[in-house]
Design brief:
about 425 residues; 2 domains; two-stranded antiparallel sheet; pyrimidine nucleotide-sugar transmembrane transporter activity
Length: about 425
């Protein structure tokens, strides 16, 4: 049983996990977005395929550490570390763990598309639109798991779509151009401070020839394509819903005799199987040629590492929320993070909070809250004891007041379907009256 009243340093774990989730959701999107538009690091921008791969490596290390901690609590104190590692490996690859390769690949592709989306959308718009994963998860659960949704939940999903559509309404072109100019100027002012003289000289030297001029300009001043970002976030939402339902289906189809697996073991399995598509498809196939020329860690700095660590730590925070909070509290934290992201985007990235954005965001948060509410089941009707007694007494009085022909027959008569025979006492009384 989960102890939801657990404390850490005098702070309830439920409140602490929700605060961490709110901060992580807000900061992750902001840092990821800035890492894709910030000035070049030594003339390079980092490859998203390498960050996705490192994210899975770090998550595997964290999940394995937590899984070993759980195993050690169920083993004798003097158990060797090699025995615990052997037990961890055997548990990870036992039975049908290979089935998690499908949701793991879907999660990997989803993470890659998130980088494409945050590169082409402002953080607040991305975060609001990304709530469509609730819709895709519900649809796939109905199709693949046969789950039934109430009318209230279908209405909330419709409101969710309406809210996202309002947020995506086109803005004034002139205002968008001014906003893009301000963002470019702000990035330009920070360029001298962050990349230094060496990177500037390298860019100028390469730009002296025709070859590479266009690529350098795109790298140095990336332009956001709203259509590409919207398409990427929609596909990411679909993959998120499909991966979550596939993961749930694998868990439900596990043999009933199989030994229960902890949450950390499941995270280890997902991260392990995610390494293969992240490395072979992303690092080698997609960016292999560029990485061989520039290097695996080209374009990395503390901002990129911070984004990777925040993304890897998100799994731990979600696990804490699952253990110590509930789904309603989780959605509340998500709503707060949307507000924080909008305010931070307005301050750091010159994002203009319009009336359409406010209306659409309010509709999305309301729909999310409505969807997370449990379905109302009316309690059974209960009659107080004194009411039962009074009703029973009234029934007996009405029964005795009925005419003879309307009173029910005796049990013996009903069972035998004929008048009952006189008893011995009735026979003696009849004889006395005869005397």
């Amino acid at each position: 049983m989960i102890d939801r009243a657990a404390l850490l340093g005098g702070v309830p774990m439920k409140a602490l996990s929700l605060i961490m989730l709110t901060f992580q959701n807000s900061a992750l999107i902001l840092i990821m977005h800035y890492s894709r538009i910030m000035p070049l690091v030594n003339g390079h921008r980092y490859f998203t395929s390498t960050s996705v791969f490192l994210n899975e490596v770090i998550k595997l290390g964290i999940s394995a550490t937590m899984a070993l901690y759980d195993l050690s609590s169920n083993m004798p104190p003097n158990t060797p570390a090699t025995s615990m590692i052997t037990e961890l490996v055997s548990t990870m690859f036992a039975n049908d763990s290979w089935k998690l390769a499908v949701p793991a690949a879907l999660y990997t592709l989803q993470n890659s598309l998130q980088y494409v989306a945050v590169s082409n959308l402002d953080p607040s718009t991305f975060q609001v639109t990304y709530q469509l994963k609730i819709l895709t998860t519900a649809i796939f659960s109905v199709i693949m798991l046969g789950r039934r949704l109430t009318v209230k939940r279908w209405c909330s999903l419709g409101l969710l779509m309406l809210g996202v559509a309002i947020v995506q309404l086109p803005q004034d072109t002139a205002k968008a151009a001014i906003q893009g100019t301000k963002t470019e100027a702000k990035v330009g002012r920070r360029a001298v401070e962050m990349i230094g003289t060496y990177a500037a000289n390298a860019i100028m030297a390469r730009s002296g020839s025709y070859e590479g001029i266009k690529e350098d300009k795109v790298e140095e001043h990336p332009e956001m394509n709203r259509s590409v970002g919207l398409m990427a976030v929609l596909i990411a939402c679909a993959l998120s819903g499909l991966a979550g339902v596939c993961f749930e289906k694998v868990l439900k189809q596990s043999p009933p005799t199989q030994k229960p697996v902890s949450l950390w073991i499941r995270n280890c399995q997902l991260s392990f199987w995610s390494l293969f598509p992240a490395f072979f498809i992303g690092v080698l196939w997609v960016d292999g040629e560029k990485i061989s020329k520039a290097g695996f860690f080209a374009g990395y700095n503390f901002v990129v590492w911070t984004a990777i660590m925040f993304q890897a730590g998100g799994g731990i925070i979600v696990a804490l929320v699952i253990n110590y909070a509930d789904n309603i509290a989780k959605n509340f934290a998500t709503s707060i993070s949307i507000i924080v992201s909008a305010m931070a985007s307005a301050y750091f990235f010159d994002f203009e909070i319009t009336i359409t954005y406010l209306i659409g965001t309010s509709v999305v948060m309301g729909a999310t809250y409505l969807y997370s509410q449990p379905d109302y089941v009316p309690p059974p009707t209960q009659i107080a004891e004194y009411e039962e007694t009074a009703i029973g007494r009234a029934s007996e009085e009405n029964e005795s007041a009925r005419p003879l022909m309307m009173q029910p027959l005796r049990k013996e008569s009903v069972e035998s379907e004929r008048p009952g025979s006189p008893t011995e006492d009735e026979r003696q009384q009849f004889l006395k009256r005869g005397d």
